[in-house]
UniProtKB/TrEMBL annotation:
<dbReference type="InterPro" id="IPR009081">
    <property type="entry name" value="PP-bd_ACP"/>
</dbReference>
<feature type="region of interest" description="Disordered">
    <location>
        <begin position="1095"/>
        <end position="1151"/>
    </location>
</feature>
<dbReference type="InterPro" id="IPR016035">
    <property type="entry name" value="Acyl_Trfase/lysoPLipase"/>
</dbReference>
<dbReference type="InterPro" id="IPR016039">
    <property type="entry name" value="Thiolase-like"/>
</dbReference>
<dbReference type="InterPro" id="IPR016036">
    <property type="entry name" value="Malonyl_transacylase_ACP-bd"/>
</dbReference>
<dbReference type="InterPro" id="IPR052568">
    <property type="entry name" value="PKS-FAS_Synthase"/>
</dbReference>
<keyword id="KW-0012">Acyltransferase</keyword>
<dbReference type="Pfam" id="PF00109">
    <property type="entry name" value="ketoacyl-synt"/>
</dbReference>
<dbReference type="Pfam" id="PF02801">
    <property type="entry name" value="Ketoacyl-synt_C"/>
</dbReference>
<dbReference type="GO" id="GO:0004315">
    <property type="term" value="F:3-oxoacyl-[acyl-carrier-protein] synthase activity"/>
</dbReference>
<keyword id="KW-0596">Phosphopantetheine</keyword>
<keyword id="KW-0808">Transferase</keyword>
<dbReference type="InterPro" id="IPR004432">
    <property type="entry name" value="Omega_3_polyunsat_FA_synth"/>
</dbReference>
<dbReference type="Pfam" id="PF00698">
    <property type="entry name" value="Acyl_transf_1"/>
</dbReference>
<dbReference type="InterPro" id="IPR032821">
    <property type="entry name" value="PKS_assoc"/>
</dbReference>
<keyword id="KW-0597">Phosphoprotein</keyword>
<dbReference type="InterPro" id="IPR020841">
    <property type="entry name" value="PKS_Beta-ketoAc_synthase_dom"/>
</dbReference>
Length: 1273
C-alpha cells in the first residue's frame, strides 16, 4: 500500500526521466558542437563587430541612441561559414535563395545531432515515432526583402511627384526591384519558421509530431517542454528539439535599439558591476532526447538526464515587457517540485543573464529567493551565462545554455563566464548561495549527491522556463567520453639526422598545404602509439593547434640544420631531440614531492581532461566530510576571486598542513595513475618528506583507500594543535653545509631538517629563532628563503603528531613493496619486514631528511632517469644539483605553476618517449579524430546566417546599383543588317571564360546596348526572333581596344562550345539513323526525311531550346583609323547577352538565311549523311548510343531546370530524395527533352511519377524506343 502510494505521488519526470543522447551546435566562432564546447572551456569571446555580410555600419550605425532610423549598437555574435551541399539534402540550387538560412542550417544541425546520437542515415530505428519540435521566431530577414520589393507603388508616386518622366520612373522602379531577391514558388514556405521543422521531418522521413513554437527568448525551452510531453505521453519514442535564430539583421538591431536594450560597449558582461545592456547573437542548437529507460536499453551514449522543468507567466504587472521576479520564482519552484529535490543540491546554474541591469537584478532576486530557502550555505553554487561569449541568441538562447550545461555535467567541469571584473554590488552575492564562476574548473560533487544543474530562459512578454538536469551515472563503465581536444603530441623520426630533417621538412610543407588540417590529424594518429627503435633519430613536441604545430616544426627544422651532428638538444619552446634513444631499462626513478610544493589550482587542466585527478580529490572530499572538514577540492580549486586580499587568504588556507599534505598527495596519485596509462613503470621510487608516503603507495605498500586515509591523518596530526598558535617555521638556506651547521649549533631550538643538495639545507625550529637566524645568515651573504609551511617539520616541535599518526598507521595494512623504496631517514631501501617498515615510517616525522644521500645511493644502484611526479620541479632541480656533471636525466611533469598543466604533462611524456622509454601517448579519449571520408561529387556552398544569394542574382543586384553614366558616345556609322538567333551558352568552361573577362558596364545612361559602344566590329547581335539593324562606327579612341578584344575572345569561346555541342548531337542522330536503316530498309524513306533542310531546322530548334547556345558572328577586328572621340569609363556591370535594339539609320537590309554561326569563317553545315548498312549491330551498341545521347541531354535539361551543375549530377541520383525534383518539375524536364528529341515517346505524369532516378527515365525511354523500332520492322 505504501509502495503504491509512493509511486502515485511521483511526478511525470520522476517516473519517466528523459535522457539527452545527442547534440549539435552552431554559434559565434563555433562551427560544430566540439568547437562550441572548446570555446566555452577556452573562454573565447565570440562577440565581433557587425560584418558587411549582415549589414553596413555606414548606413545604419550612429552612436547617438536617439538618432532616428539608426542603431547605436555595432557588436554581436555572428555565425561562421560552414559547408553546405544542397544535393545532400535534395534541394535544387535554384530554390536556395528563396529559403531563409535557418531552413538550410537547420538541416545540417539536425543531421549532426542525429549522428552524434548514433542515429545517422545508415542506422535502423523507428522513424515513424520520431518527431521534431523546435523553438524559433519570425524569419524577418527573409520577409523584409520580399515585402520591400512590393513597395513599388509608393516608389512610383514619389518619383512622379519629384518630376521624373514615366520612362525614368519605370527604369528606377525596375532597378529597385532588381536589388531584391525576386518572388518565386518557394518564397512563401521559405519564410515560414514552422517549415524548418517540417523540412527536417521530410528529409529524414520522421512520422512524429513536427512544429515550431515561439516563446521569444524562451522558445528553445518551450520546445523542449513540448518534446518531453511527446515522450512521456507515449506519442513518440525519440524527439529532436532545440532552437534556431539566424536573424541579426538591421531590423533586429533596430528593434532592440529602440527598446532600448543594447550595450554601448564591445562586450557583454552579465552580473557585472559595469553591465549596461545586451548584445544579440545568431545560433542554432539541437538535442536528441529519449526516455531514459529506452536509451539505456538501446545502448545510447547518455550526456545527462532531465529531472524537472518548470514554466510560468509573469501575470499582470506594470509592463508586459518588464521582467518580474514573481513569475520567475513560480517557474523555479515548479521545476524543483517536479524534480523532487532541493535546489541547494545544485552545483551550477546557467542563468538567462542577458547583461541588462534590470533583467539581471530581477533574475538574481528570484534565484536567491528560491535557492536560499532552507539553505544556510554561502557561495557554493556557480552562476554564469554563455551569453557573455556568444551574445543573446534569442530563440536559440535556451538551447545554447542547455547544451553548455549538459556538456558541463558530462565532463564534470564548471565552465567559466567571461567579461566579469567585479560582481554587481547590488546583488550582495557574497551573502547568497551563488558565486560568479569566471574560471574553468573541475566540478567535484557534493558528497554522495550527483552533480546537478539548472538552466533558465525567459521570454519577452512574461514567459518563464527553468530546466533541472542531473549527471548520468552509467550502470556499466562507458570509457572516456571527452569531446574536446587536448594537447596533441607529434613524434617524427628518421634513420639518421639528415633523413629526420627531410622528414620534418616534408611534414612542414604538407602542414602548410591546403590539406594541412588532414595532415595534422594523420600526424597525431601516427604519433600516438609509435614505438621507435633505439637507433633512429627522433624529434618530438606538443601542440595545441595546427598553427602551433607549424611554428614548432619550423623551429625543429631550423635547429636540425643548425646542429646536424648533435647527440641531443632541447628547444626552449618545448621541442626534444635525440640522435638515438637510450636503453633505460632498470634505470627509471619516480620521485614524489613533499609539503611546500603545493599551489592553488594545481593540475587544474589535467583534472579537466583526466578522471584520475578528480577521483582522488573526490575520495578525500568524502573522507573529510565524515570528519566535518571543508572539502579538499574547495581548498585546491577555490571559487574565483576579484581582489588580491581574497586570493592571499585562499593561498594561506591551502598552506595549512591539514590541507597541503592531502592536496599534494591527491594530485601526485592522480598524476601517477594518469602516467601509468602510457605504460610508465619505474624501477626505483623515493619521496621527499611527506612524499615518502606517496612513494610507498606507488610501490604497493598501501591500497588506495588506506593511502587516502593516511595522508589525511598525517596532515591533521602534524598541524598545530587546535586553538594553539603555530610556533614552528622553516627556512631554506643556500651555502656550504658545514659552515651553515656551525651557525645552527648556537641555536637551541633550530636544527637542520633537510639535507636537500650539496649546498642547500632547510632549517626547522621555533618561529622566533628561525627569524633570528634568518637575519644572521642573510647578513653573512647566505641566500635564505622562508618556506610556506605551518610547522617545524622533522623536529621535536612536531612530536605531538607522533601519537595520532601512529594510531592511524595501526588502522591500515602494510604490504611488501613491489620495488625498492628509498627512505629519508636511512637513505636506503625500506626493509621488507612489515614491522620495520611501520617503525621507519613513523620515525620519519621527527628525523632529518637525508635526500642528498638518497639520490647518491639510487644513482649508485643504476638509477639514471629521474621523473618527478607531483606539483612543481623542486626535486628535479635538487637532483641536478646533487649529480652535477655526471650523466643523468631529470624531468618534471608539472614544473610551472603558471603554465597549462596538461600541456606540461604531455611535454614530459614526450621527453620520456624521445629518450627511449617505450610509452604510448596520453590521448585515449572516446573522441576519435575522424579522417574526412570521400563523398560523391557535390555542390559545396559556404553558408552562414545570411540568406544565400546566387551569383546570378548578385550580378543583377550589382547591375541595379551601378550609377548611370553621365555622357554617351555618338559615333558615325557604317551599317549592315543581319538576321540571326542569340542564345545563352551555359557550362563550366564558359563560366571560366566569363570569369576571365573584365567586368564592364556595357550600357550608357540612355540604356544603349553594347553594340553602340563598340563601333569597329561590324557586330551582329540579334535577340531571339528579332531582326536588328546595327550601324557600326569605324573610328573611335584606342582606349576601347582592350574591351573589344576581350569581348571578341569571349564570343569566339562561346561559338567553339556551340560547335562541339552541334557535332555531338549530329553524331548521336547519325548513329540512331544508321541503326534504323540497318534494321529495316523499308524505313529509308522516313529516315531520309531526317537529313532534309526541315530536319536540319528541327535540329536547330533543339539547339535553341535545350542548350541555349548564343550564335554570334564576327569578321576579324579592323584597326581604328579615325580620330579619338570623347570617351567615358563605363561602370562595371554584368554583360547582357540579349540587348534591346537601338534606333539607327536604316540602310537597305541584307537578308541572310538562318545558319549555325561560328566565329571562324562561316561555312554551311554539311547535311547528315546516312552510312551504308553494316551486317549486325549488337544490343549493347544500342544501349551505349542511347545512353550517351539521352543521358547527356537529360543531365543538361535537369541542370537547366534545377540549377545543379551538370558535373555534379549522376544518373543514379534519386529524383526526389537527392535532387528535390517534384512531379511538376519532372513534367517540365520531360517536355524539354521531348522538344529536343522529337521522336521520343510521350510519357504520362503517372509514368513519370514511378521513375525514381534519372537512370530509370533513360532506361524507360530506351525501352520505349525499342518497341517503336519493332513496330517499324
Amino acid at each position: 500500500m505504501s509502495a503504491q502510494s509512493s509511486t502515485s505521488s511521483l511526478t511525470a519526470l520522476q517516473k519517466t526521466p528523459i535522457a539527452i543522447i545527442g547534440m549539435s551546435a552552431l554559434f559565434a566562432k563555433a562551427k560544430n558542437l566540439q568547437e562550441y564546447w572548446e570555446n566555452i572551456l577556452g573562454k573565447v569571446n565570440g562577440i565581433t563587430e557587425v560584418p558587411e555580410s549582415a549589414w553596413n555600419l555606414e548606413d545604419y550605425y550612429d552612436p547617438d541612441q536617439k538618432a532616428p532610423d539608426k542603431t547605436y549598437a555595432k557588436w554581436g555574435g555572428f555565425l561562421p561559414q560552414i559547408d553546405f551541399d544542397p544535393l545532400e539534402f535534395g534541394l535544387p540550387p535554384d530554390t536556395l535563395e528563396a529559403l531563409d538560412s535557418a531552413h538550410l542550417l537547420g538541416l545540417v544541425m539536425a543531421k549532426q545531432a542525429l549522428e552524434d546520437a548514433g542515429y545517422d542515415q545508415g542506422k535502423e530505428f523507428n522513424r515513424e515515432t520520431t518527431g521534431v519540435i523546435l523553438g524559433g521566431s519570425g524569419l524577418w530577414k527573409s520577409i523584409t526583402p520580399l515585402t520591400s520589393r512590393l513597395q513599388y507603388p509608393l516608389w512610383k508616386k514619389i518619383c512622379q511627384k519629384s518630376g521624373l518622366s514615366q520612362e525614368q520612373t519605370d527604369k528606377i522602379i525596375e532597378n529597385m526591384k532588381a536589388a531584391y531577391v525576386p518572388w518565386q514558388e518557394n518564397s512563401f514556405p521559405g519564410m515560414l519558421p514552422n517549415v524548418v521543422a517540417g523540412r527536417i521531418t521530410n528529409r529524414f522521413d520522421f512520422g512524429g509530431t513536427n512544429c515550431v513554437v515561439d516563446a521569444a527568448c524562451a522558445s528553445s525551452l518551450s520546445a523542449l517542454k513540448m518534446a518531453i510531453s511527446e515522450l512521456i505521453e507515449g506519442r513518440c519514442d525519440m524527439m529532436l528539439t532545440g532552437g534556431f535564430d539566424t536573424d541579426n539583421s538591421i531590423l533586429n538591431y533596430m528593434c532592440f535599439s529602440k527598446t532600448p536594450a543594447f550595450s554601448k560597449k564591445d562586450c557583454l558582461n552579465p552580473f557585472d558591476a559595469t553591465s549596461d545592456g545586451m548584445m544579440v547573437g545568431e545560433g542554432l542548437g539541437m538535442l536528441v532526447i529519449k526516455r531514459l529507460e529506452d536509451a539505456e536499453r538501446d545502448g545510447d551514449r547518455i550526456y545527462a538526464v532531465i529531472k524537472g522543468i518548470g514554466t510560468a507567466s509573469d501575470g499582470r504587472f506594470k509592463s508586459i515587457y518588464a521582467p518580474r521576479p514573481e513569475g520567475q520564482v513560480r517557474a523555479l519552484r515548479r521545476a524543483y517540485q517536479e524534480a523532487g529535490f532541493s535546489p541547494a543540491t545544485l552545483g551550477l546554474v546557467e542563468a538567462h543573464g542577458t547583461g541588462t541591469p534590470a533583467g539581471d537584478f530581477c533574475e538574481f532576486t528570484a534565484l536567491n529567493e528560491i535557492f536560499s530557502e532552507n539553505n544556510a550555505e554561502k557561495q557554493t553554487i556557480a552562476l554564469g551565462s554563455v551569453k557573455s561569449q556568444i551574445g543573446h541568441t534569442k530563440a536559440a538562447a535556451g538551447a545554447a545554455s542547455l547544451i553548455k550545461t549538459t556538456l558541463a555535467l558530462h565532463h564534470k567541469i564548471l565552465p567559466a563566464t567571461i567579461n566579469i571584473t567585479e560582481p554587481n554590488p547590488k546583488f550582495k552575492i557574497e551573502d547568497s548561495p551563488f558565486y560568479l564562476n569566471t574560471e574553468t574548473r573541475p566540478w567535484l560533487p557534493k558528497g554522495e549527491t550527483p552533480r546537478r544543474a539548472g538552466v533558465s530562459s525567459f521570454g519577452f512578454g512574461g514567459t518563464d522556463y527553468h530546466v533541472v538536469l542531473e549527471e548520468y551515472t552509467p550502470k556499466l563503465p562507458q570509457g572516456e567520453n571527452r569531446i574536446h581536444h587536448r594537447p596533441q603530441s607529434i613524434l617524427l623520426w628518421g634513420q639518421n639526422p639528415e633523413e629526420l630533417r627531410q622528414t620534418c621538412q616534408k611534414a612542414l610543407e604538407q602542414l602548410q598545404s591546403p590539406q594541412g588540417s588532414q595532415v595534422y590529424i594523420e600526424l597525431q594518429n601516427q604519433s600516438k602509439s609509435a614505438q621507435l627503435p633505439l637507433k633512429v633519430a627522433r624529434v618530438g613536441f606538443v601542440a595545441t593547434s595546427l598553427a602551433e604545430a607549424i611554428k614548432l616544426l619550423q623551429a625543429a627544422v631550423k635547429q636540425l640544420q643548425k646542429q646536424p651532428q648533435a647527440d641531443a638538444w632541447e628547444h626552449p619552446q618545448g621541442i626534444y631531440y635525440r640522435k638515438t634513444g637510450l636503453l633505460l631499462e632498470g634505470k627509471v626513478v619516480a620521485l614524489f614531492p613533499g609539503q611546500g610544493s603545493q599551489y592553488l589550482n594545481m593540475g587544474r587542466e589535467i583534472a579537466l581532461n583526466f578522471p584520475e585527478i578528480q577521483t582522488a580529490y573526490q575520495k578525500l572530499d568524502t573522507l573529510r566530510a565524515k570528519a566535518g572538514l571543508t572539502p579538499l577540492s574547495e581548498r585546491v580549486f577555490p571559487i574565483p576571486t576579484f581582489n588580491e586580499v581574497d586570493e592571499k587568504r585562499q593561498t594561506s588556507l591551502l598552506q595549512r598542513t591539514e590541507n597541503a599534505q592531502p592536496a599534494i598527495g591527491a594530485f601526485s596519485v592522480g598524476l601517477y595513475k594518469t602516467l601509468q596509462k602510457t605504460g610508465f613503470k619505474p624501477n626505483f621510487v623515493a619521496g621527499h618528506s611527506f612524499g615518502e608516503l606517496t612513494a610507498l603507495w606507488s610501490a604497493g605498500v598501501f591500497t588506495d583507500d588506506d593511502y587516502y586515509y593516511l595522508i589525511q591523518a598525517r596532515g591533521q596530526s602534524m598541524a598545530a594543535p587546535k586553538g594553539a598558535t603555530p610556533q614552528g617555521a622553516m627556512l631554506a638556506v643556500t651555502g656550504k653545509v658545514s659552515q651553515i651547521a656551525q651557525w645552527v649549533e648556537g641555536m637551541a631550538n633550530v636544527q637542520i631538517a633537510n639535507y636537500n643538495a650539496p649546498e642547500q639545507v632547510v632549517l626547522s625550529g621555533l618561529a622566533s629563532e628561525i627569524a633570528t637566524i634568518e637575519k644572521i645568515l642573510s647578513s653573512q651573504g647566505y641566500q635564505v628563503t622562508p618556506l610556506p609551511v605551518s610547522a617545524a617539520f622533522h623536529t621535536s616541535l612536531v612530536r605531538h603528531a607522533s601519537q595520532p599518526f601512529g594510531k592511524a598507521l595501526d588502522q591500515v595494512k602494510f604490504h611488501a613493496p613491489q620495488l625498492p623504496v628509498y627512505a629519508n631517514v636511512t637513505a636506503a631501501p625500506y626493509p621488507k619486514d612489515l614491522s620495520g617498515m611501520r617503525q621507519l615510517l613513523e620515525a620519519q616525522l621527527l628525523n632529518s631528511v637525508q635526500f642528498v644521500q638518497q639520490i647518491e645511493n639510487i644513482y649508485a644502484q643504476g638509477g639514471y632517469c629521474f621523473v618527478e611526479i607531483g606539483p612543481r620541479q623542486i626535486l628535479t632541480n635538487l637532483v641536478k644539483q646533487i649529480l652535477g656533471d655526471r650523466p643523468h636525466l631529470a624531468i618534471a611533469l608539472n614544473p610551472s605553476r603558471q603554465k597549462d598543466s596538461d600541456v606540461q604533462l604531455s611535454q614530459g611524456v614526450m621527453q620520456l618517449r624521445v629518450l627511449g622509454l617505450p610509452l604510448n601517448d596520453l590521448e585515449n579519449a572516446a573522441l576519435t579524430v575522424k579522417t574526412p571520408s570521400s563523398k560523391r561529387k557535390g555542390m559545396t556552398l559556404k553558408l552562414n546566417a545570411t540568406n544565400y544569394i546566387s551569383d546570378k542574382t548578385k550580378a543583377l543586384i550589382g547591375a541595379a546599383l551601378q550609377p548611370d553614366s553621365p555622357a554617351e558616345i555618338k559615333p558615325s556609322v557604317d551599317s549592315q543588317t543581319v538576321e540571326s538567333k542569340c542564345e545563352e551558352v551555359k557550362g563550366s568552361e564558359n563560366e571560366e571564360i566569363l570569369a576571365s573577362i573584365p567586368s564592364v558596364n556595357p550600357y550608357p545612361s540612355d540604356s544603349q546596348p553594347l553594340s553602340e559602344e563598340i563601333p569597329t566590329l561590324n557586330l551582329s547581335i540579334v535577340s531571339r526572333d528579332q531582326t536588328v539593324t546595327m550601324t557600326m562606327n569605324n573610328a573611335i579612341s584606342n582606349n576601347i581596344n582592350p574591351l573589344l578584344q576581350a569581348f571578341y575572345q569571349y564570343q569566339q569561346s562561346l561559338a567553339k562550345v556551340h560547335e562541339e555541342y552541334i557535332k555531338h548531337q549530329s553524331q548521336s542522330f547519325q548513329s540512331v539513323l544508321q541503326l534504323f536503316k540497318q534494321k529495316e530498309m523499308t524505313a529509308v524513306a522516313q529516315i531520309d526525311e531526317l537529313s532534309t533542310p526541315a530536319a536540319a531546322s528541327e535540329n536547330s530548334k533543339f539547339d535553341q531550346q535545350n542548350s541555349e547556345v548564343s550564335s554570334v558572328s564576327f569578321p576579324d577586328p579592323t584597326p581604328f583609323k579615325s580620330e579619338p572621340q570623347p570617351l567615358r569609363t563605363p561602370e562595371p556591370q554584368p554583360l547582357n547577352t540579349a540587348p534591346q535594339p537601338l534606333p539607327t539609320p536604316e540602310p537597305e537590309p541584307v537578308h541572310i538565311s538562318p545558319i549555325v554561326n561560328y566565329l571562324e569563317p562561316r561555312q554551311p553545315i554539311a547535311p547528315i549523311s546516312i552510312p551504308e548498312p553494316v551486317s549486325e549491330v549488337s544490343e549493347s551498341s544500342l544501349d551505349s548510343i542511347q545512353d550517351d545521347a539521352l543521358s547527356q541531354a537529360l543531365l543538361e535539361v535537369v541542370s537547366e531546370k534545377t540549377g545543379y551543375p551538370t558535373e555534379m549530377l549522376e544518373l543514379e541520383m534519386d529524383l526526389e530524395a537527392d535532387l528535390g525534383i517534384d512531379s511538376i518539375k519532372r513534367v517540365e524536364i520531360m517536355g524539354s527533352l521531348q522538344e529536343a528529341f522529337s521522336g521520343l515517346p510521350k510519357l504520362s505524369p503517372e509514368a513519370l511519377a514511378e521513375k525514381r532516378t534519372l537512370a530509370h527515365i533513360v532506361q524507360y525511354l530506351r525501352e520505349k524506343m525499342m518497341v517503336t523500332e519493332k513496330k517499324i520492322a
